[in-house]
Amino acid sequence: MSLSDSVGFLLIHGLGGSNKTMTSLAKFLEKKNAKVVNENLPGHNTKPEDLKMTKWEEWIEFTQTLLDDLKEKCSQVFIVGASLGGIISLFLTATNAEIDGLILCSTAIKPYDLKSWVVHNFPFLHHIIRWVPMKKFTIRFLGVPEDWKIYEKIPVKSLREGVEMLKELKPNISKITQPVLILHSIKDKLVPFRATKQITSTISSADITIAKIDRGGHVILKDSGCDFALEKIDNWLSDRI
User: Fold this and answer.
1) What pLDDT does residue 139 have?
2) CATH code (residue 85)
3) pLDDT digits (tens, 9 = 90+) for 155-174
4) Which stretches of the chain are DSSP H helices?
5) Is this model's pTM higher than 0.85 or not?
6) Which of 236, 176, 180 is nearest to 208 (CA)?
7) Is 196 within the bounds of a domain?
């Protein structure tokens, strides 16, 4: 399917990563002549200490500015978010009714295991445990990075920022009525596939598509599930543009 530069896409990466995790999708869309914005979130692609100092409001303000610029240039605008970027994308879609569609990758909006439950329910945890070491964690849950990097350690405080953002999103998430595509690998070892139900049970869209990917893992736009994910995105867009 061919697009045009009147169709815009805002891509939002996950916590501790960078916009490189979204480059496969960015190139895919650009080859179809779409206008693509794929920037690093505040506190990312520098050093972990910068992330520790970043508030969730900064992520929203930054991406809202990018979105506003894209809306001025394009007649149709879609948002694509991965993991934490998916939560930001939900927030933006809930507060910008004119968005034409939302694509979520590997996203959860509620606790999905014991560790995430602890992070959600113990707001002062980051004063006790300050960092999550990511080297072994990355290999186990995210796969071995190729041309993208993730911080070697993630501030627990940043996980809490995600929780605080979810609290603000909760009363507004039902406002989402736009078409939504949810991509999730059944082999995702970080966020289980059942997390998709958290989203479908809370948004109000009558047009929800769930694409179950049987390969890859959490970073599905960069690992072995990428080609299948891109195919699903292409098919979904062809029915909505």
Assistant:
1) 56
2) 3.40.50.1820
3) 889 999 999 999 999 999 99
4) 23-30, 48-52, 56-73, 84-95, 114-121, 135-141, 156-169, 196-200, 226-238
5) yes
6) 180
7) yes
Give the relative orientation of helices 156-169 and 114-121 as an angle to the nearest 10 degrees.
Answer: 80
Tokens of 127: 């004063």
- Please give the residue range of the domain that contains residue 190: 7-238
Residue 73 in contact with residue 152, Cβ under 8 Å?
Answer: no
- Residue 2 belongs to a domain: no
Considering Cα of 233, then 184, then 8, then 170, what sign does the dihedral take? Answer: positive
26: helix, strand or coil = helix
Q: Please name the residues in contact with 96: beta carbons below 8 A apart, sequence gap of 6 or more.
A: 64, 67, 71
Check: CB of residue 56 under 8 Å from CB of residue 84. Answer: no
DSSP state of 98: T
End-to-end CA distance of the chain: 10
Nearest to 218 by CA among 114, 103, 108, 132: 108
